[in-house]
Amino acid sequence: MERMRTALLLSIFVFISTLFWPQLLDKHLVLLAVASFLLLLTSQLRILAVIPITALYFTCYVSLILTGQLFPSAQPDNKRGLEVLVDGKDHTIVVQIVSLISKNNRSYFNAKLLESDTYSFNYTPLIEMRWYKPEVILQAGQIHRFVARFKPVYGRANPAGFDRQKWSYSEHIGYRAAIKQHIQTINKETTLRANFYQQVQYATTNLTHQGLLLALSFADKSLIPFEEKKHIRNLGISHLFAISGLHIGLFFSAVYLLFQFTSSHLLPSSKMGWFSMRLISIGALIGAGGYAYLAGFSLPTQRAFLMLLVAISVFALKRNCSKVDLFLLVLFVVLVWDPLAVLSLSLWLSFSAVAIILVLLWSFPIRRIVSDGGDSHHHNDSTAVNKKSAIKGKIIGYFKLLLYLQVGLTLLMLPIQLVGFSALSLTSIVVNLIAVPLFSLLIIPLVLIAAITTLLAPQLALLLFTLCDQLIIYFFYLTDFLSTSYQWFSVAEQQRLLVIFMLLLLLVFLHFQGVLQRKLSYLFASLLLLLLFLPSATSKDEWSVDVIDVGQGLSVLVRSENKTLLYDTGARYPSGFNMVDSEIAPYLVSLGIKKLDYLIISHSDIDHAGGIEQLVQQFIISNRWSGEPLSSHADFLQCQQGMQWRLGKLNVEILSPTKLTNNDNNNSCVLRISDSKTSLLLTGDIEKRQETLLVNQLAEKLSSDILLAPHHGSRHSSSEAFIAAVNPSWVIFSAGFMNQWKFPADEVLERYQKQAVKMVNSGLSGLIRFQITAQAIKMQTFREDLAPYWYHQSLTSSPLDGHIDDK
Length: 807
Prior knowledge:
Elements: H1 2-17, H2 29-41, H3 50-67, E1 90-97, E2 108-116, E3 126-130, E4 143-152, H4 164-170, E5 173-187, H5 192-203, H6 210-218, H7 226-235, H8 245-266, H9 269-272, H10 275-294, H11 299-316, H12 323-337, H13 345-361, H14 364-375, H15 384-421, E6 423-425, H16 428-453, H17 458-479, E7 486-488, H18 491-510, H19 515-532, E8 543-547, E9 556-560, E10 563-567, H20 579-590, E11 595-601, H21 606-609, H22 612-618, E12 620-626, E13 637-638, E14 644-647, E15 650-656, E16 670-674, E17 679-682, H23 688-702, E18 706-708, H24 720-726, E19 730-733, H25 746-754, E20 758-761, H26 762-765, E21 768-772, E22 777-781, H27 782-786, E23 804-805
Parallel strand pairs: 3-5, 10-11, 11-12, 12-13, 17-18, 18-19, 19-20
Antiparallel strand pairs: 1-2, 1-4, 2-3, 4-5, 6-7, 8-9, 8-21, 9-10, 14-15, 15-16, 16-17, 20-23, 21-22
């Protein structure tokens, strides 16, 4: 048993260590295989063979799932799997639709790649499909032939906010295909689940919260409006609408208790013997499996169901297994089943949720609640009053169970949520005390019953769905005032809160120890808390420039002596999704910034000014400037050449515009920021005509060490004369990865290369940070320096992988 525990710990350690690998072990497969073989031959070191075997398994699994190629290429010049399709050309492919399709996600869905015109795969990989002008109504299970163009998944990369690339890999998606043309529908047959979904979708068409009802039954959140998602997040109940370990665990518990209660009356253990408890467990597992099927056996539901299956199997076999060993075994099985789950926050949330539920189910209070029902038949002399009292006690006990689950889940998940989301709803415990019983006992069961009833009695199903819809409406109405308590925390605040949380747990544990131990612990905790809240020393000579990765757009943060300037806000899209909520605000908050001294909007283009509304709602802004009038924001002052102000130790000067033109790009507010020795030039989207004017009028003021490339590196900007006048050491391109405009243009790159300028691209490297002192300029990027892990790198070994051109 001890050796098995050691082996489990070693393997789990290797799986977790992959979170910190700088790259997959592609070039070391043979070495790993040889090491495994040699260790297996040595009896004293045999157990250590788990380490190279796990590393070998993880590398091959990731390669197969993400690229369709079992063994990664050992040669960096040899393309592998799906990588052969990333060549900027159109390819004919055959795919099978996987995602449930609604009116809101017709242009964004997942599919299995069955064929391509150039390559056959060891495995049918899952790919993300984008169809910007869908011409055919698709359904899950159908097989279609398309013309598409491929690129690897390469999400925006910032130290805070949603890590999309990491999440995509955890969902088994490594590549994206943009559909250019639909050629043929090969098979129109849809899956049983897709047909079921369409009927439920039709039945709930006119209901206010149709999207939430479908999320609770089919795990499809495509019809939930963006603002409603934010509201749910702010209440701290997002976990209730994402079918995962919590739902599967609660549903398993409910079915388990229902079967136990039924069995105690119809099939008591005195008649069924050892099979009674196993029958109950199997019935509960079947119920949990049915719910997982409705959710499409998504990866979180797979993991939750697998956890329950392993745990139930161990107990059914009556193995002498401690809870610690059981948890290690469950985690090991989940990671072997899906090694990429280690990247998913939902694994740790699901594991925590199911672990708490299992502990409570088999702990003393819950065992007593469950076992009381099975013993009632032995008391033949019991009176009716005693029976009623027993039933009442069971009901009270069940609600106590829910309360234990609620408090336990909330407390245990607080640190995980804080680390994963950098935010907490301060009233989430209160909201969840209402929401969890309401949804787990009433709404979710009614939704599932209504969904099944859709097949048999549509009118009754509509009645049940309407009842659930009204309950959700009333719930939001009663808790609406609590949605303002959602709080983002800076990195420093997160560290303090985590330490406080751990100290509280420590103090609770030590409370039951000796008097001297308690006193020493209290003293130690007090000193540690004092150290936590001491202000950190920062250099007054240093200032910084952060180019935030907002995809195809722009947002630059400049800081000096606790003064802040934000230049542009990134884009906002018709769906409501915007770069302020997803990237900029989380990053500012992570730095502890709650107020902006200056907000500068270069010009009115949506990729520069799209997030104004969200920014002014979330931050105090002292001064607002723009290069041209903004239709919905009359409070912005007009940028004019010659204006200057101080930002900490820095001097900020507006170099352009002198007058407005019909060209929005050339109206961009051009800023030169300098500490008298090192300078930064922010240029917006100016084009060659405006560059020429600046060179002719202000050539002596253009010289700067760091240049933000005009217009994202468009071929209509960055003229040779302008580059020569600025004479930068660094040039930054803020552009989306493999964007449709092909920014930065090859000819622009050649111009900067010709003048020996070092180049860095946010689309390739993520956030770009310059830390500037009188002695040096230090440049760091998210992908290469701040988080240089394999899951932040591209799966394509193309020339684009280089983030700096030092020529």
